[in-house]
Amino acid sequence: xxxxxxxxxxxxxxxxxxxxxxxxxxxxxxxxxxxxxxxxxxxxxxxxxxxxxxxxxxxxxxxxxxxxxxxxxxxxxxxxxxxxxxxxxxxxxxxxxxxxxxxxxxxxxxxxxxxxxxxxxxxxxxxxxxxxxxxxxxxxxxxxxxxxxxxxxxxxxxxxxxxxxxxxxxxxxxxxxxxxxxxxxxxxxxxxxxxxxxxxxx
Length: 202
Fold this sequence. Notes:
Layout (H helix, E strand, L loop, with lengths): L1 H11 L4 H8 L2 H7 L11 E5 L4 H13 L2 H14 L4 E5 L4 H7 L3 H12 L5 E3 L4 E3 L11 H7 L4 E3 L8 E8 L4 H12 L4 E8 L1
Helix pairs in contact: 2-4, 3-5, 4-5, 5-7
């Protein structure tokens, strides 16, 4: 039945070449095929893949706007491979307005998949530790300085405990790194000391 429904959807809305290729790849194959990322602007950020790669861009789009389970499985597998030691994973929060519009936070979907793969249970989920206190419009067409200014004071830390635990902030894409920097700065100001970030793409 699912295959039949997919055929109907594909007939009405023909999938792109990248979407068809994404469907055909296993998580392991995607990791081998995707182009690696250049180094992000800030040293505390690690990114796995290049957003310039059409296949990577399609992966992000399928997760962010379609909640595609196969794409989420690929992303979770790729991120899970990057974790070498115990850590608390914190998704970049989205605003209440964005959650109402989309219905979910794509970073939480990815972390949930990472947790499913974490058979050693060395990773903890930090949902709610960091919240977004101010909604901002999409930053797609803003330059670096505008992005940095726009992301000031958009997060709040809700609790202070285990301040020396390793924290990894998870996001789908880092462009200038301004949002991740603001998230890290507010956590540092709250007393947390070991904070890095990991994204699927840059």
